[in-house]
Amino acid sequence: MSAFASTIDAWKREKGPLRILSASGQLGYGIPEPAFRAGLARKPHLIGADMGSVDPGPYYLGSGKLATARRSSKRDLGLAIVGAVRNRIPFILGTAGTGGGDPHLAETMEIIREIARENDLNFRVATIGAEMPRDVVKAAVRARKVTAIGPISALTEAEVDGAARIVGQMGMEAFQRAIDLEPDIIIAGRACDTAIYATLPQRLGFPVGPALQMAKIIECASLCCEGGGRDAMLGTLEGESFVLESMNPNRRATPMSVAAHSLYEQADPLSVAEPEGILYLADAKYEAVDERRVRVSGGRWEPATQFSVKIEGATRIGARAVLVAGSTDPVFIAKAQEIAASVEAMIRELVPPNPKRPYELFFRFYGLGVVGGQPVTTVPEEVGVLVECIGETEEEARAVAATAKQYLLHAPFSGRISTAGNLGFPFTPPEMTAGDAYRFSVYHIMEVDDLAPLFPVSIETIGR
């Protein structure tokens, strides 16, 4: 009997609270082992972890690469999977490989096969794909069933065709179908973080509102504690309420820290939209159990009358090269934007742009309001200089960056004292290529009548 099947069978005989361990808020950046081991000792009914996000930007989705180092990803996956399989605990991983597309899922599965061989493990794995069929998305565009999120433009069929990859965020429905196949672990493409932790409670008949409310908090592990942290977090679901406890004894979950975390990544603090419905939090309550634990209640679930899926896509826009430098010249700093404009004009004469696809050139002076967007009122003592070029090819981008280096270094300006150079460089060469550049071209909500065809589930046995 699989880990999922045996856990479900055992819980139905015993009933009682359901213990869910969040191993990591973003697997691949290091799971603190002592806290994870402490979590295993509490005999959880499920271990979950998230491995991806759009937070690292469009590059990883478009390129199909992992944001985390393979070595670090393997270490974290090994800790979670070996702990789960050897203790017969179901394990769910969401948004495999950062972007959650087919290549991310394939790379994650290859790492898992290595872990199984090296640890002499045998287990059943259900995988869930998340790449969206282009014809389905284009049909939705034509039917006006696609809505933009935020300032992004309305989606067109041309943008759908031009995207390197489009994924959709699966909800609980896809994980329920995976559980039907009786796996030991589930590895999913792009997924709602909450679905990782709320699907098993839903399967066992727990109220969906509190289950999703708990999932929304524990998906970031101990980040909801005072001072944050990456340590494993245990959620104990007791029907209409749940208790939160970090597995690091030095981390304290308090009503304030947990309530504050409930605002995390939410445009609306009172509702959380999922593919299958909406979680309402207006009546949420946060009560201290003791100095380290908090009881939470009040989440209310309202099923959707229309299913929807958040879709994400990235389009390649060229190759990137960057130049890194700094300056302490007060006159140069005061006139930095003016100097940059004159240097750009010279560069475009010396390296003529391709008229069909002209390169883009950006000058950023850190210390002059680049990050916050507000102009500075006094000249700082030093600034960091970042010049970025996005060209059609890597060669073109680097040529522009190298030319920018030379002309920014020796640019003339009124009040200049030394002709030896305006910049200092931290290393050589100061200009470097940075791979392909992508932009988010798809960041929309797509209405669908049936979720199942979008997220195919397969099963395989790994190991001896």
What does this structure look like?
The model has no long low-confidence stretch (mean pLDDT 95). The protein contains 14 helices and 19 strands. The chain folds into two domains: 3-130 and 169-305, no CATH class; 316-440, Alpha-Beta Plaits (2-Layer Sandwich). By secondary structure, the chain is an alpha+beta fold. The protein has a ten-stranded mixed beta sheet with strand order 12-13-9-8-1-2-3-7-4-19, with helices on both faces. Strands 5, 6, 15, 16, 17 and 18 form a six-stranded antiparallel beta sheet that branches. Helix 13 packs across helix 14.
Topology:
Blueprint: H1 3-14, E1 18-24, H2 33-41, E2 46-52, H3 58-63, H4 70-86, E3 91-98, H5 102-119, E4 122-128, H6 134-142, E5 146-148, H7 157-162, E6 165-168, H8 172-180, E7 185-188, H9 193-203, H10 208-218, E8 233-237, E9 241-246, H11 255-261, E10 271-274, E11 277-280, E12 285-288, E13 293-297, E14 300-303, E15 307-327, H12 330-334, H13 336-350, E16 360-366, E17 383-391, H14 394-409, E18 431-448, E19 457-463
Helix pairs in contact: 2-4, 4-5, 8-9, 9-10, 13-14
Coarse shape: globular
- Give the neighbour order of strands across the main sheet: 12-13-9-8-1-2-3-7-4-19
Q: What structural category characterises the helix and strand content?
A: alpha+beta
Rg value: 25 Å
Strand share of the residues? 25-35%
**What's the end-to-end separation, in Å?**
17 Å
**Count of distinct strands:** 19
Give the overall average pLDDT: 95
Number of helices: 14
Helical coverage, percent range:
25-40%
User: Which residues sit in consecutive blocks of at least 5 with pLDDT less than 50?
Assistant: none
Major sheet: size, sense and barrel closure? Answer: 10 strands, mixed
